[in-house]
Predict the 3D structure of the following.
Amino acid sequence: MQSADVASYAFAVPANVYAETVVQVRHYTDTLFSFRITRPQAFRFRSGEFVMIGLPNAEKPVFRAYSIASPSWDEEIEFFSIKVPDGPLTSHLQKIRPGDTVLMRQKATGTLVLDALTPAKRLFMISTGTGIAPFASLSRDPETFEKFEQIVLTHTCRDHAELAYGVELFEGLKADPLIGELTEGRVTLYSTTTREASPRMGRITRLIEDGHIFADLGINGLDPETDRIMICGSMAMLNDVKQIVEARGFEEGSNNKPASFVVERAFVG
Ligand code: A2P
């Protein structure tokens, strides 16, 4: 039975769709929440990929792309979502409760994967808003730490409260019995706000261009010899960061042609 707000529909689950059970929901702000669902045994994905998810509340359910926020070894699947008041999916999805059913198409895909980057020393994961989701997956994957010595995760939001998911993720790494030791001292979380006053402010684009972030981190800057970059957030942010890193000699990679940076739009529904 779906909870009242996500009324169940006489719905036959199509062959290429999993129907999974919600196990946890966490609301961070009026506009952000995360949830975890059961993981189908046969479901495989690479950390950083996205899937299409929906609700069994209509004859033809609305599906939206969601980056998987949990690592590929996790027994559950986690997502981090925005709440859009009149969004065709998120206006309903934000009301889910443990025990409800979420639909998930069986195929995961995406470009924010380790396979799309050539080897290097340091990985920058640059995100705004819910764009942090694929990095929540990758920063909990041991393979990331096999491939890179250091990880810098940047997360920029308008307000301080919106940074909570990233802070929790970062604190959770230290406490994690499986990957705590492996990740210790190797991940830096660089959170900034752009509207609400906070200890660290500014768009990531400005902080890169004026060198503020590098001064804060005590490093020289972005170097295509030693660094790789993954970018996930709004379209405007992607385009601006892409321009900045291309001007510094970085080349966009893909699954077929690994290179020094990759981008993915954060999905809103
Ligand atoms: P700003 O507040 O200056 O617009 P949104 O909530 O609109 O998706 O934005 C999430 C975060 O991304 C905000 O902090 C926002 O800053 C920032 N942002 C939006 N556009 C860009 C851009 N073109 N380059 C860098 N950061 C951006």
Q: What stands out?
A: The domain at 114-263 is CATH 3.40.50.80 (Rossmann fold).
